[in-house]
């Protein structure tokens, strides 16, 4: 009789344990479901890269310059199905203006928003006094491209890796607007790579990262501007 009673107690204990596991599993599933359905927002500041002379003291004369055309002369986005809009060149022009201004060596004139500026001057009831520039910076993207490579270990079972790389090369010419003479030229190039790796199913898997295009374009233009200023400060060319 006692043996049967002991078996009954053990059976009840096992049943209670199983019921506890079921409750715990249910709560875990509910918690995971609530987490999956939650909407979260995160914000983080990222570092921006500047030219070498950014925030450095300068006591010399600042000459007025403008940024002229900046064309995409690479094969990127210039295929058969292109709509003819030079988006890469337009983006490069904005980046160049920013880096030239941050060198603290020039008075940079904006010629891209003349109509809007004239309208605002009219609202203020003032007449514009546009300052002429003696020199223009003409830019060209001569090389630009993307490539993706990868590797696997044991047919991908043990792991796999992926590398996305973007590369760019730009050239800048300083042109005398009165004589159309090129007084100096510089160039810059760069590569930006994004690597991801998974090992036995763990790790990061990345898709196509379009931000690499801007990052490598910014790097190449920054290098070209640094070379421009380096030549100016060692006397290889002058705005006088």
Written overview of the protein:
The chain has 4 helices and 6 strands, in the order H-E-H-E-H-E-E-E-E-H. Strands 2-1-3-4-5-6 form a 6-stranded mixed sheet. The radius of gyration is 31 Å and the shape is elongated. The chain has helices at residues 2-37, 87-102, 114-124, 211-233, and strands spanning 63-72, 106-109, 135-153, 159-176, 182-199, 202-203. The termini are far apart. The protein is 36% helix and 30% strand. It is α/β, with parallel strands linked by helices and 240 residues long.
Main sheet strand line-up? 2-1-3-4-5-6
Contiguous uncertain segments of 5+ residues: 198-203
Q: From the alpha-carbon coordinates, what is the Rg to the nearest angstrom?
A: 31 Å
Terminal Cα span: 114 Å
Mean pLDDT: 81
- List the total number of helices: 4
The 3D shape can be described as elongated
Main β-sheet: number of strands, strand sense, barrel status?
Answer: 6 strands, mixed
Strand content: 25-35%
Estimated helix fraction: 25-40%
H/E series: HEHEHEEEEH
Structural class: alpha/beta
What is the tally of beta strands? 6
Please specify the SSE layout and strand pairing.
Elements (H helix, E strand, L loop, with lengths): L1 H36 L25 E10 L14 H16 L3 E4 L4 H11 L10 E19 L5 E18 L5 E18 L2 E2 L7 H23 L7
Task: Give descriptors for this structure.
36% helix; 240 residues; alpha/beta; elongated
In short:
By secondary structure, the chain is α/β, with parallel strands linked by helices. It is built from 4 helices and 6 strands; from the N terminus they run H-E-H-E-H-E-E-E-E-H.
């Amino acid at each position: 009789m006692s043996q049967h009673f002991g078996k009954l107690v053990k059976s009840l204990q096992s049943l209670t344990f199983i019921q506890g596991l079921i409750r715990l599993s249910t709560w875990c599933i509910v918690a995971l479901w609530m987490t999956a359905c939650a909407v979260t927002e995160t914000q983080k500041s990222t570092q921006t890269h500047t030219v070498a002379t950014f925030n450095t003291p300068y006591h010399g004369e600042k000459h007025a310059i403008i940024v002229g055309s900046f064309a995409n002369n690479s094969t990127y986005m210039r295929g058969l199905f292109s709509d003819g809009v030079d988006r890469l060149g337009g983006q490069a022009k904005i980046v160049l203006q920013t880096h030239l201004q941050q060198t603290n060596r020039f008075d940079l004139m904006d010629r891209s928003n003349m109509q809007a500026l004239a309208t605002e001057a009219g609202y203020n009831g003032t007449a514009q006094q546009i300052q002429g520039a003696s020199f223009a910076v003409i830019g060209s993207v001569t090389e630009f491209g993307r490539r993706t490579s990868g590797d696997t270990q044991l047919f991908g079972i043990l792991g796999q890796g992926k590398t996305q790389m973007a590369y760019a090369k730009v050239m800048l010419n300083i042109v005398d607007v009165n004589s159309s003479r090129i007084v100096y030229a510089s160039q810059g190039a760069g590569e930006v790579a994004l690597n991801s790796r998974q090992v036995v199913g763990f790790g990061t898997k990345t898709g196509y990262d379009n931000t690499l295009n801007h990052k490598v374009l910014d790097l190449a233009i920054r290098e070209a501007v640094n070379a421009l200023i380096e030549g100016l400060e060692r006397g290889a060319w002058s705005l006088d």
